[in-house]
Design brief:
This protein is an alpha/beta fold. The chain has two domains: 241 residues, Rossmann fold (3-Layer(aba) Sandwich); 73 residues. The strands form two sheets. It has an eight-stranded mixed sheet with strand order 3-2-1-4-5-7-6-8, with helices on both faces. Strands 9-11-10 form a three-stranded antiparallel sheet. β1, α1 and β2 form a beta-alpha-beta unit. The chain starts with a strand and ends in a 6-residue tail after the last strand. About 7% of the residues have low confidence.
Amino acid sequence: MNYIDGFAGPGEYHGGEAGSPIIAIESAIAHVAKGTIGADVEINFIFIESKPEHADHLRSRLSDLEVPSSFNISVIDGEFSEQVGGILDKLDNENKSLAPTFVLVDPFGFSGIPFDLMARILKFPKCEVFVNVMVDFINRFLDHPNDRVVAHFPTTFGIQEVLDIPSRGGNRVQQILNLYRSQLETHAKYVGRFDMHGKKDRKTYSLFFASNSPKGFEKMKEAMWSVDKVSGNKFSDADPSSAQGYLFESMGIDVLWDEIIAQFSGKRVPMTEVDRFVIENTDFIPSHARKLLKSHEKQGDVGVIAANGYKRRAGTFKADKVDIVFPDISQ
């Protein structure tokens, strides 16, 4: 498998904090140690950096790490679009497919991330992109008087329609984000968005995750919910330690129950189907559904039928072992 960081940076920030390449490798090492990644699983870490001094510093930082022999690490000098585009061109010429790949695209600004390249990556069935869309910058420069600046946007969004947003009125930020999401949805079955907010809770940039894998999408949603306990799609440094959010978590997932019951009213449904619905059609994750089902089973609102020979413990909902019988809300 491949991990590609398209804007790798120097490997650490001015305060000494680790950059994304170091974090990625250390996280993979931890998974190998825990056994969640096999020690013999080959991972190719490819870090692309356009500034030579940053690339050199990153190489120095990476050389200090002790990594499993199954890890292959390379730092490539150059621009993200040119380097990844070249890799894909070579694969096309050789009629080969791209191995399962996670591509992190985290630029500073709004250029150098052509949407056509995202589409080329996503055409491979086991490849995913995680893209930072700096919506605050885009909103400020979208109607810039310099045509050379504005010319970047149709390339970044893959469509001329982005240039019409300033003349429409309404919420420009939301229109920008909706357009980028709709573009991703033409190439990926699963698209999620995670908003980053700055001072005074102002939205500064949004992270889009696009995948054609339901398992990959589920894992990304779990990661988002681990950061944002309230909605799973927002991080704000306006009040990052707010305990009040945890109060709303238990209240907020009641929305999920409404969605589930509207979908499955009066039906007997395998738990696997409930999980699939939650992952693909809601903002929530399967653990939220299980919390609700446990509560509603206690109340006698739902029935649970275990597979033959399976000894089920009350309050548990093993995906391939139980069916859920939902009440008919039409009666």
